[in-house]
Design brief:
Helix content: 10-25%
Shape: globular
Distance between the termini: 39 Å
CATH topology of the largest domain: 2,3-Dihydroxybiphenyl 1,2-Dioxygenase, domain 1
Largest sheet: 9 strands, mixed
Radius of gyration: 18 Å
Strand order of the largest sheet: 14-15-16-13-9-12-11-10-17
Order of helices and strands: HEHEEEEHEEEEHEEEEHEEEE
Strand content: 25-35%
CATH architecture of the largest domain: Roll
Number of strands: 17
Number of domains: 2
Length: about 300
């Protein structure tokens, strides 16, 4: 099994078949920066890599950042970062974005630690930052936390339209299809999914972090219990992706997933696995699913609310 450092070292060269080689980062605006950083460092186990006047950069792998918290007067999604396979891929994605007339938010990287890239406003107001050349940041010691950032799950109103955008513009592949335009799991490399889409109210539901053992999920539950918090679901073995996962709600209102044993897909020609919406694609160990699980989440911030530091 690769260590977190080895995973990070191979992040931009990991096997991929398309224009995006890896999931990069999630940026969240929060009204309670101190508490959000506590959740990330003391509960999840990330390390702080840089702090500016209004933002804190955090990572699990040996990169500059995989999670950014921006101090704000609103709680919301600031943007999703995706790593282009190379400079040619970065330029091709820019060409596709221009051809579809998506507004360009920034002609250069937003924030610190990235060599080259651009940001645009995609469907339903979600911001996507496409880039190459993130700085390395070597962890001084091995943390109790995860190996790396793995994926995000969001709930577009037009889930089919978002799926087609991710395929057409960003070159993601379909791994699993749930129901009649209900949910899609999409990949950019061998990880079963880097992005999961479930029909909903236009929010990010969770950002997810890979760890090495199911025992790490139990220790997360212990840490939450010690500070009077709790898991909202898990450990659970999902059907779509086969990962074992546990979830808690962070201070900003987004859900955090810690997972292990995600399915790896090495055949790009593998057809999507199709599930009925009423099939038990969400829990292979029982039929239980918390009724309020999908009610959590964060909407994208209004363009006017994007911090000047990140514009």
């Amino acid at each position: 099994m690769q260590t977190g450092g080895e995973c990070a070292k191979n992040r931009e060269t990991k096997m991929s078949w398309g224009l995006i080689s890896a999931m990069g980062h999630v940026s969240i605006q929060t009204t309670r920066l101190r508490e959000s950083v506590f959740d990330a460092t003391q509960l999840l186990g990330l390390r702080e890599t840089e702090r500016t006047s209004d933002a804190v950069y955090l990572a699990a792998a040996n990169v500059h950042h995989e999670l950014v918290y921006v101090e704000s007067d609103v709680d919301g999604i600031d943007g999703f970062g995706l790593v282009a396979a190379n400079g040619d891929a970065l330029r091709e994605i820019r060409r596709r974005v221009d051809n579809e007339n998506f507004p360009i938010l920034s002609e250069k990287p937003r924030g610190a630690g990235i060599e080259d890239g651009f940001s645009f406003i995609g469907p339903e107001g979600f911001v996507f930052e496409i880039y190459v050349g993130m700085q390395e940041n070597q962890a001084a010691v091995q943390s109790f936390g995860p190996d790396r950032y793995g994926h995000f799950n969001f709930h577009p109103r037009d889930v089919g339209g978002m799926m087609r955008f991710l395929h057409r513009v960003l070159d993601f592949r379909l791994s699993d299809v749930i129901g009649d335009d209900f949910a899609y799991f999409m990949r950019c490399n061998p990880d079963h999914h880097g992005i999961a889409l479930v029909r909903g109210e236009g929010t990010l539901h969770h950002h997810a972090w890979q760890t090495q053992s199911i025992a790490d999920l139990g220790r997360l539950g212990d840490r939450l219990n010690k500070v009077g918090r709790e898991l909202i679901w898990g450990p659970v073995r999902h059907g779509a992706g086969h990962n074992i996962a546990a979830y808690f709600v962070e201070t900003s209102g987004a859900v955090v997933e810690l997972y292990t044993d995600l399915e790896q897909i090495y055949d790009d020609a593998r057809p999507p696995v199709v599930w009925g919406e009423d099939e038990n694609w969400y829990n292979m160990w029982s039929s239980y699913r918390p009724l309020d699980f999908r009610t959590f989440g964060l909407a994208p911030v209004d363009r006017k609310a994007l911090s000047a530091l990140h514009r």
